[in-house]
Amino acid sequence: MTRFRLLLAALLLPLLATVLEPVRLGVPALRYRFGRLRAARLAGDRGAISIELALAVIVVVAIAGAVLALVKTLATNVENRIPKDAPAGGQ
């Protein structure tokens, strides 16, 4: 079981590192926005709170879009590697 886990980790970690790259790059932007949100909440500025929440949502949507584009690109690359002239039955 240990060898299986090591093999699985060796195969999946590079893939996860590639897919999670936009998340890793977007986390500082989210921390900045939530820090500004916390400061606006402490100041009692409701307008700034709504603006910071809207900007945080935009950052989250951008991260999700980047992950989706990366997965779509990866799927297209893998699909192009599959031979087109293979028999239907796999024989």
How much helix is in the residues?
Answer: over 70%
Q: Low-confidence segments, ≥5 residues, pLDDT <50?
A: none
Biggest sheet, in brief? Answer: none
What count of helical segments does DSSP give? Answer: 3
Spatial gap, N to C terminus: 32 Å
Based on helices, strands and strand pairing, what is the structural class? mainly alpha
Mean pLDDT: 82
Proportion of residues in extended strands: under 5%
Number-wise, the strands total 0
**Anisotropy-based shape:** elongated
Radius of gyration: 21 Å
Pattern of helices and strands = HHH
Transmembrane segments: 49-71
Keywords: Membrane, Transmembrane, Transmembrane helix
Kindly describe this structure:
This protein is mainly α and 91 residues long. The protein has 3 helices and no strands. It has a domain at 17-77. The two termini are 32 Å apart. The mean pLDDT is 82. The protein is elongated, with a radius of gyration of 21 Å. α2 (21-43) runs antiparallel to α3.
